[in-house]
Design a protein that fits this description.
alpha/beta, two-stranded parallel ribbon, 15% strand
Length: 199
Amino acid sequence: VLDLVKALRILFTKKKYYNTLLVIPSPENEGDGRFEVELVQYIKDNFTYEEKKYINLCKLSPELGFLGMSQNSISFLYNNSKVVYKGSEGEGTCRALHEGIACGCVAVYFKHHKGAMTDYLNENNSIAFEKHHPSPDAKPWGNLQYNIEEIANCLEEAVDNYSNYKPDTDYLYSELGEHNIKDKLIPWFSKLYERDGVE
């Protein structure tokens, strides 16, 4: 998320003041919370009072785990947004990006993400950024850094040219929504049950 905020710093310098909501779930085992402090401190140190009006930080309570916001609230936010951003290098099944594109958002994401997050992403609903070179103080095991300027350029493209992107929301909702999940799953499970002679 810090990379995203650094990209916003570049955009704000170009007078591109995009309203941004940063939603950060807090797992119960988050630890000492240094990441949260670093992010808030960066915003305090690098944005003016007027600029901070465009950045909204929503830190969900660790007591709620990853269920800190209702589906209705999430749906409202996606449907009133143009872009959804996910900068992780890899994770399990990340539904956030899929929920966003199903609601018509353009996704900005790391091109070489390892995981199912990149499923359903294409030139009609997403823009990918790549990594930069290793940092001068990189550890021997890697520690590649994102090119913040490239992230800023991708965000600018996604917001300023939003109307040029045509996410197929009907298809995405049909594929990813839960309304017809029984029709999609029962035939597959039926084959398995029949194969193994199970009711």
